[in-house]
Amino acid sequence: MKVVLLVDVKGLGRAGDICEVKEGYATNYLIPNKIAILGSSENLAHASSQKRKISEDRAKNQREAMELLRSINNQSIVHKVANTRGSKLKSPIKDTEILNVVEKKTGKREGVTLKFSAKYHIKEIGKHVITFAVVSTKGFNFDKEVVGEFVLDVQS
């Protein structure tokens, strides 16, 4: 059965590609989960024009990812906190708060976000190395891995 992919699928193809898959895979997984649409003659004709648009969107998304990487990779980001007991924090700083701190510094970027290499629970004042990957929120896989690290300097 022919389908047109709406997002990148590892091992199958990229968004906009026309793929031949088993009928059960298409009808039970790809189409209901909005990963692909049926490869009807109308959809196949529309796919070529969509592929160009998807290619432009992918390139824009890749540029956003590289811009975000350049803005924070190997940088030191200061985060001031008020709730401390000496050098200990009253409540730990978690991934979502780290992401908010980065977005305040760099601005929120459309189509990309950070994915941290570990679950962070920062419990002390000081410098902490944060390792991350920039990932697409639009379902694209980047041509090359976009990874880096920065120092989160927690101060009271």
Written overview of the protein:
- The chain is of the alpha+beta class and 156 residues long.
- The chain has three helices and ten strands.
- The protein has helices at residues 23-30, 41-72, 95-106, and strands at residues 2-5, 18-20, 36-38, 76-80, 84-85, 88-94, 112-116, 121-124, 126-136, 147-155.
- The strands form three sheets. The protein has a four-stranded mixed sheet with strand order 4-10-9-7.
- β5 and β6 (88-94) form a beta hairpin.
- It is elongated and about 70 Å long.
- The relative contact order is 0.17.
- The mean pLDDT is 88.
Features:
four-stranded mixed β-sheet; three-stranded antiparallel β-sheet; 33% helix; elongated; single chain; alpha+beta; 156 residues
CA radius of gyration is 21 Å
Biggest beta sheet attributes:
4 strands, mixed
SSE order: EEHEHEEEHEEEE
> How much β-strand is present in the residues?
25-35%
Set down the secondary structure blueprint.
Blueprint: E1 2-5, E2 18-20, H1 23-30, E3 36-38, H2 41-72, E4 76-80, E5 84-85, E6 88-94, H3 95-106, E7 112-116, E8 121-124, E9 126-136, E10 147-155
Parallel strand pairs: 4-10
Antiparallel strand pairs: 1-2, 1-3, 5-6, 6-8, 7-9, 9-10
Gist of the model:
By secondary structure, the chain is an alpha+beta fold.
